[in-house]
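Figure-free illustration: sequence to structure, shown twice.
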Amino acid sequence: MKHKRIRLALLLIGLLAWLSVAFYGYRQVHADSSSSLTTVTIGYQKGDPVDISRQRGELVKKMKAKGYKVVFKEFQNGAALMTALKAGSIDYARAGDTPPVTAQATGTQIAYIAAGATKEYGTGILVGKNSGITTLSQLKGKKIAYTSGTAAQSLIIKALKKAGLTTSDVTLVDMSQSAASVAFAKGQVDAWVTWDPYTATAQVQSNAVLLTNGTGLTKNRDFLISTQTYAASHTTVSKYLVSYLSADMTWAQNHKSALVTMLSKTLGLSKTIVEKTVNRRTFSMQALTNTSSIVQEQQAIADLLYTEGVIKTKVTVKSAFLT
């Protein structure tokens, strides 16, 4: 009986040893493949093209198949994205038209990688439904919320110029978009310079009036931005990202109903708000092959900000477009 117990104990010990070896071998063969992947970190804002790709999941799968692990980091605005890009905490950033200009002016060696379509119809200046403000000229003497270093800054300057006004004729209040949303809802500011989905949210929830959209004032394009150093040594990564982002934007453009459902859930917004946002924009992301018109757009913003004293360095935008 004693020998049987000994044999049984030895058998169990052997079995445990075998299981340990087998488990170790399994871990070696089936270890998390992400440990052998090259990490690529992309900064984004809620609801932007990168966020759409993040949620859809195809870009991550395709990049993994090519040997890359994509990590996403969310930011509230383009200015914060440019700061993160300069600090090296992200490799790519999705931003609007103004942040790359201000970043370049402060010495960040940015590189334009790809560009999207205009977002001018969902970008603009909001006023309260009972404000009595119906023209840009009536903004004189008013308190206006905006976010410096973003598309909102160049837009308000251009809008005031169009009305024969300057920034000295109004009180500009620099605050984050989330803070501006609260201030506008409480009537603490008379107008708010913003973009979708903030614009659509205020229109639907507060019956805010879009005094003007970006037509004739700003394109507020989507740009995929990197640094000169990173872009120069990671041309293959950029090529893959642009290709896969472009495919996702084609999907978004052709499946707007599914896109609305997806974004409504992740943004926590009603379908009415998301539909307004989605239906007034075109989704695209393309490599910068013919850049002349886009360079001109960006240079016009750079010249405006320099003339207005917003940036202290005269920027040559073309130098940031890699060929």
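We now fold a second protein in the same way, so the two outputs can be compared directly.
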Amino acid sequence: MAKLFQGIRREPRTPRRRVLRVSRVEELSPTMRRIWLGGDDLEADFPFSELGATDHVKLVPPDPGTGRVELPPPGGPRPDMRDYTIRRFDAAAKELALDFVLHEHGPAGRWAITAAPGAEIGVLGPRGSQIYPADCSDYLLVADETGLPALERFLEELPAAVPTQVITLGAAQRTLHREATWLPDASTLVATVAGLPLGPESFAWGAGETGEMRELRTHLRTRLPAERVSVRGYWKQGHAGSAPREEED
């Protein structure tokens, strides 16, 4: 008898409001950097669950006029904020790592370009966790630069012996923990995925531009049950701000 598939497990969290400081910076590529944050507001039991690969926080950059971080009051007006994947958390050092795509068309991206040790930023959340299944027969992971932090968490946290097919999108290639197929853009993404083997107990995940991910999701749901497909839009072409993270149906 086939084992009952449990799917994605959702765990609510009590959201916290913090002002954190940059402790160190790592250059990942010409277009990406990892910024480690710490400070008295970062608790040692910060919620960080294995295979909670897409868990994220909202960032509140300093006010451009005053240079200070102004956290929004509960229930009050909200400043311009952005969602960022929780890349890593070091409980012993009380440091939180976030990976940034460096660009000028968003407040968090602009902040990350010049962020140095001591720089402050507001961090809200996470509001909850989504724990992905670890017991599927195999996995398909697809991401552009914005989805790479979550994809890399999957590669680090999935069982090493489980077959995993990886597709990355974007202008620059990155070295990952496992072999990946790199596509410079999404023009051949669906055709590439159509040529990959997927079985009834496979699990597919993807993150990237909303329109591209919608096409990918539509294709994957012709091959897998809906509960075995988790594909999200992380941003929308032509919109300067980040689009809301598009949930699965």
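Summary for the second example: Helices lie at 107-114, 148-157, 189-194, 210-220.
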